[in-house]
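Fold it.
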Amino acid sequence: METRRAAFAGSWYPANAADCEREIAQFLSRGPQPEGDGRIWLGGVVPHAGWYYSGQIACNVIHWLKDDSPPDLVVLFGMHLHPRSANHMMASGAWETPFGELPVAEKLADHLKQRYPFELETPRRFVPDNTIELQLPFVKYLLNPAQILAVGVPPQRDSLEIGRTIGAWASTNGMRLKVIGSTDLTHYGRNYGFSPQGSGESAVDWVREENDRRIVDALLDMAPERVIDEGTSRQNACCAGAAATAVATVQKMGARKSKKLAYATSYDKSPGDSFVGYAGVVFG
């Protein structure tokens, strides 16, 4: 079984298990604790900046998905794609993490290949992409699933059917599934070519209270079509397809409740005219 080597370890997050474990412990100690009300959280939406900026949010969302026993399967939706992009998937092999390898769910990948067109990656030929890789140490350490499948989906309605197919397949095959959608929110400022409200505190307030709030509300309403529309029309999600497809998948699994765990921006840690929004949401 070939392994896809980590591309961002040692830069966007620690390269070794001890340092990762130390940061995870800090993230969990500072994050919201699971409520202990017996609700099973089926999935969530996480950010994917370097761990310094958004790791605490992503780590705590994935921690809330943890149950008494490891899931059979974790599906991660991500990748920076535009509406006309192809679907992407690594259909075989394994992913490297500092805590050990995560094998690909090859049977599910085969099921999807028979139904949808994909640009297939391999452990040796792939587009380096932080949206998936930055979640993998959290997934391995906190959930330790038997298998994972990472799927790149563009912001279009056809992507939602991929998610629904995955939810139905897991149910039919008796698989305990957890779902993660990876997206950052508004990329604001000169660095990103998007500054409709100028600069300064008023621009930060607009991102927090209006532009990002709109897509967070769409996530909390579990309205996947609206998530896509928001991301493509208002530039308030860089991977709206991933977030929307995660919502469609958990809805197929029976999720009816949502909860916002956190919201922040890179401005909070590094004030400047260019900054990015992050949110953590769970569904159950």
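The radius of gyration is 17 Å.
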